[in-house]
Structures are given as structure tokens and as C-alpha cells.
Fold this sequence. Notes:
The chain has ten helices and no strands. The chain has helices at residues 3-22, 29-36, 40-46, 50-72, 79-89, 97-100, 109-136, 145-160, 167-181, 191-200. The two termini are 38 Å apart.
Amino acid sequence: MKKGEQRKQELLKLAYRxxxxxxxxxxxxxxxxxxxxxxxxxxxxxxASKEATLEAVIEMMIEKDSAVAxxxxxxxxxxxxxxxxxxxxxxxxxxxxVITDVLERKENxxxxxxxxxKIVEVAVPILAEIVQEGIAQGIFSCxxxxxxxxxxxxxxxxxxxxxxxxxxxxxxxxxxxEKSLGAKxxxxxxxxxxxxxxxxx
Length: 201
């Protein structure tokens, strides 16, 4: 890694920690610069604004999630469990919600859409690989795999990331998931328990 890129990554990791500890709104560029021990001009060499820093921090989080998801491909899990685990890998950690919540504000809608597209771009090929493996094992039976996993990923993000779902929502989601992937009824039923446990955290 070149020295300039290394410095940029160090700044990103520092901003990430400060956003989690203090909140995005309560962290100023001056504070990041002071903590990093650099001139403000150096900061602006790497990031045009605080918003640009936020976007880069979230992209760094997605890269971290992608690495975890790829490791799950080799995990000793059943195919359905791998599928759900990879989707969960792209959800923010509990302490990271203070960062991702900023994207929900209307002034950040462009950045929000850009980040959502990035998650889909990174996650869909990994999920498609798992479904392909499931088809080979006779667990799933479907075509247009990438389109299906994209739809299921986006649905899960909107439904479950903020805990706004009821028992019927989960029931319908599981039914839709099984039918979309051509799985036997009950194959994905364990998801309801995963969601209940997640809601308790």
C-alpha cells in the first residue's frame, strides 16, 4: 500500500471510531484533524467534506462486511444458513447504527441510494454463489438467480434493518423466500428464530 493510501485509510479508521464514539453530528473536521495530528489541508487533500468522509467510512464498512461474507462461504453451515448469514453480514453492527442512521435523513438520499447500490453490487454475487450451490445439492430450484437474490436482499434490508416487522411479515417473507428459490416449505423457517433473537439484542 502506498504511503498516501495508507494515510487515507488511517484517517478513515480514525473517523469511523470517532463517529461511533461521539456520533456523526457531534464530530467536527477540526476534531478529526486534531486527533490525527495533521494539518487541515492534508485532510482536505483526501476528503472534500465531512459528508465525503462519511461516504468513505460506510464504503469501508461494506468492504469489511464483504470479507466476512466471503469467509462464510467456507463455513460449516447448511446452505440456507449460509444464505441468511451472508445477508446478516451486510447489516450494520449495533455500534455502527449511529453512522448508518445518518443516511436516513432526506438530505442524504443521494448518498443513501449510492450506498444501497454498492451493497447490492457486492453482496449479490456472493449470495448467487450460495444459491448455485443449493441448486447443485437439490435444496433450491430456480432460474434468474442474481435477480432473485437481489430482490430478496433489498426486501430484507427494508423490512428488518430497523425491527419494523411483525409475525405475519416474517411468515410472508419466509414463504416468499422459499417460493422464489424453489425450496421445500419449511426450509427457511429457522429465519423466524434468527429475527426474534436479533430483535432481543
